[in-house]
Amino acid sequence: MAAPTMDRSTAAAPATPVQTLTISKALNMGLRAAMEANPKVIMMGEDIGKLGGVFRITDGLQKDFGEQRVLDTPLAESGIIGTAVGLAIRGYRPVCEIQFDGFIFPGFDQIVSQVAKLHYRTQGKIKMPIVIRVPFGGGIGAVEHHSESPESYFAHTAGLKVVSCSNPADAYWMIQQAIDCDDPVLFFEPKRRYYEKGEVDTTAQPGPLFASRVLRPGTDATLVAYGPMVRTSLDAANAAAEDGTSLEVIDLRSLSPLDLAPVFESVRRTGRLVVVSEAPSESSIASEIAAKVQQECFYSLQAPVLRVTGFDTPYPPSKLEEEFLPDLDRVLHAVDRSLAW
After folding, report:
1. pLDDT in tens, 52-63
2. Active site residue 146
3. Model-level pTM?
4. Rounded CA gap, 233 and 223, in Å?
5. Candidates 145, 146, 156, 333; catalytic one
């Protein structure tokens, strides 16, 4: 079955094409645009309807599109994902919200055993155009199971696409592109950045979904990050510039597939790489990047690839999370170590 295409001319355009929005509002507008463009797009999740979600990302959507398209579900992630599988087989494009990152594991079996494999199992006859939205990461002072970074599990699973936005413009466009995609997409949203603002041009031509992007050029070292750590890396680059150090910052955006061509190009110029991520470092996306850069850029490296990550422990109580999460000082310390090599 051919995938329905999004006719953006049918979407209600805002009064001005360029607006200053938070990531949360940009996601809301992107979801709304997708629903207006394609009646097969259905939202489902815990408290996403009348409440608008715990972070209000789906605020107003049930009121405008009805309870048949924006469904409040029971507290059962396995049921949410399993229902989405059936809807996708019937030609719908379900968008599932996992309320918090740590709640995704009851749906893990459905995601890795069904969602990831049905396209291959049916030799391409059945597509799985499912988007699974996951607010992830720490920094909000939450309790256990509300601040985790489980993206490596899914990036490791063949058959799944994994992306993460870091700014309002990407939030607006990437969620629509993910819904357009015929493959299942895990869409990781940096919850502690939900209310950070940036300009969004709703008439722009977005770049490819599965592509990384250089956000700040530099010459002395390369910083690679995704999701919530992109802002931390940009802040570190600003601070380093005051001391005369030029850092290039690259936002991965796509975690599976990884688009590392811009990273290779950057490292061949700077000779140094620091990878920044909230997730524990062991067997992580940061590990994969370090391995591939060492493989492709060995003769260009002037120092070992360094990683600034969360620690290899379960996420701590909120009063300790500032000690756990990478911050500007830890990133700058890694840069200094790399430059001193």
Report:
1. 999 999 999 999
2. yes
3. 0.93
4. 7
5. 146
